[in-house]
Amino acid sequence: MAGNKILQTIKSPWPANIARRWNKPVTTDTIKAQAPAVDNGSMMAQLFNRRKSLVSDACGAKTDAAFVNTLEDNIRQQGTMDKLISDGAQAKISDCAKDIVHNLCIDDWHSETGYQHQNFAEHRWRHTKKNAEWLMNIHNHPPEVWLLTLQFHAAL
Fold first, then answer.
1. Which of 5, 48, 100, 103 is the most exposed place for a label (fewest CB within 10 A)?
2. What is the chain's alpha carbon radius of gyration, rounded to the nearest angstrom?
3. Residue at 7 is within a domain
4. Given CA atoms 129, 130, 135, 136 in this order, what sign does their dihedral have?
5. Cβ neighbours for 60, distance < 8 A, ≥ 6 positions apart
6. Number of domains the chain contains
């Protein structure tokens, strides 16, 4: 702020006004692997899918609690989404995740427990998994490069 009055402000004091917006819903799901990733040793990944454009992002994570960090990274790199669609996992409905969602005015929606067909990320994961496994098999990659293959496929 440059002064005491609202007319003298240079930058908005509310984070939701500053954030770059995509105006698109984003679905998310956590993926667990059987082998640690070669680059950072993570055993799981967070997959973010834009609902309309079908663009994907994959971020490695070592624990379920890292969802908040991957969400912040995705917002920082890709922009703020209008709606975050996820399953009812505990990490996704934690207080830290709710604070981020509320501070940036992101609408959130959680599918019902046991009804995976409600989450669009499950459908996209099926397609992404099939293609990532095909890439790993055709090039004879070891299982430790699963995260790099997933990130490569998401970048396509």
1. 5
2. 18
3. no
4. positive
5. 37, 39, 40, 42, 44, 45, 147
6. 1
CATH code: domain of residue 55: 3.30.420.10
In a domain, 118, yes or no: yes
Distant-in-sequence, close-in-space partners of 48: CB < 8 Å, separation ≥ 6: 26, 27, 28, 56, 57, 58, 59, 70, 74, 78
Could you report the per-residue pLDDT of 14-62, keeping only the tens digit for each?
666 666 777 788 888 888 888 888 888 888 888 888 887 878 888 888 8
DSSP state of 85: E
The tokens describing 19, both together, are: 């954030």
Task: Classify the C-alpha dihedral 51-57-60-65 as positive or negative.
Answer: negative
Tokens matching residue 96: 């830290």
The CB density around residue 5, as the number of other CB atoms within 10 Å, is: 8
Do residues 121 and 86 touch, judged by C-beta distance below 8 A? yes
